C-alpha cells in the first residue's frame, strides 16, 4: 500500500471508520470510498450498488466493491433514502480508483437524521485513526 | 514496572486446524471469528486450516453457467452448490485439498488486497517448490499454475477491514468433480494437484506443516496454536 503522505484526503468531506467519505451538497449527502480504501482494494473490477428509492440505516451494508479475487462490503456512514447512484461505475468501475472523491462517487442520499453527521471525522481525525 | 508490550503489528497469528469440516460449518465459524474481531474481542489474527467435505462454491457474482453438467446430475452426485461472499467464480473443494482462511486485520498490518493475494500465491509457490513442483503465477489469471494447469486458487472477502475466505491448494484430492465445472469461470482450464505432479503421494499432514513454515516467512509473523475451545470462548465474549 502507499504511504499515507502519498494519498489524497480532501478537507471538504467527512470520513467514517469504514473508510467511506460523505459530502453535503444542498441538503443531500454524496458518498464514496476514500483514497485509502481504494488503494487497499487495488484495481476495482465491479461495483455493486443499491436501487434508487431504497432506504438504509446508518451502518447497513449498501453494496460491494470487487477487486481482483476479493469482494469487500460497503457500509453506510449515515442513514437515509437513496436518491441517486453513480451509473457510470457499471461500465467504468476504475473511476473509484482514479477519482475516488469526484467521478468515483457512489450514492446520493436524503438523510434520515442529520445528527448522524456529527459522528463522522474531519480530515485530521481520520488521518489520526489511520496511523493507528 | 510495566512489561514491554510488543507492537500489535508483530503479534503472533493464532492458528487452528479444523481438520475435515463441512463447508457450511466452517463458513459459519469463519464469520463468527470475523464478527469477534470486529467487536475487538481479541487482537490476534487467526489462520484457519481445513479440508472440506465435497462441495462446489460460487463467488458473489458467480452463476451456474460455468457448470458443464446439468443441475440434476449434480444433485444426483450429492455434492451441494453454495453461493458465498468471496470474490472469484465457481470452484470445487474436497478432501485432499488444503484450504487456508486468514482472518487478518488489514488496517493494522497496512496490508492491501493485491499484496495479500500475492502473498498467498507466494506461499503456494514455495510449498510446491519445496516438494519439487515448479508452480508459477500467471499474469492474466491470479492463482498458482503448473504449466497450463491450475494447482492453487484464491478467493477473498473483506468485511470492515478484516480479510476472510482465502486459498486452496490441491494436494491429493479426487480431480473428477473439477471436470463438471469451468473452474474459476475459465473455459479450457484444467486443474492439477501435487499428487498428479509428483511420483509419490504427498501427505496432507506434510503439506500443512510446510504451508505453516512458508506462511511464517511470507507473512513475517510467528504462529501460535490455539484450540477450538479457546477460540469459541473468545468468540462468545
Describe it.
The complex is a heterodimer of chains A (132) and B (237). By secondary structure, chain A is α+β, with helices and mostly antiparallel strands. Chain A has a single domain, classed as RNA polymerase II/Efflux pump adaptor protein, barrel-sandwich hybrid domain (OB fold (Dihydrolipoamide Acetyltransferase, E2P), Beta Barrel). In chain A, 18% of the residues lie in helices and 34% in strands. Chain A has helices at residues 35-41, 88-91, 95-98, 123-131; strands at residues 14-15, 20-25, 28-33, 44-48, 55-56, 61-67, 70-75, 80-85, 107-111. Chain A has a 6-stranded antiparallel beta sheet. Chain A is globular, with a radius of gyration of 14 Å. The two termini of chain A are 15 Å apart. In chain A, 38% of the residues are buried. Chain B is an alpha/beta fold and 237 residues long. Chain B has one domain (15-235): Bira Bifunctional Protein, Domain 2 (BirA Bifunctional Protein, domain 2), CATH 3.30.930.10. Chain B is built from 7 helices and 11 strands. Chain B has helices spanning 23-38, 71-77, 106-109, 113-131, 194-197, 204-219, 228-235; strands at 13-21, 46-52, 55-58, 80-83, 91-93, 97-103, 144-146, 149-159, 162-170, 190-191, 223-225. In chain B, the strands form 2 sheets. In chain B, strands 1, 2, 6, 7, 8, 9, 10 and 11 form an 8-stranded mixed beta sheet that branches. A 3-stranded mixed beta sheet of chain B has the order 4-3-5, with no helix packed on it. The two termini of chain B are 29 Å apart. Strand 7 (70-75) of chain A pairs parallel with strand 8 (149-159) of chain B, so a sheet runs across the interface.
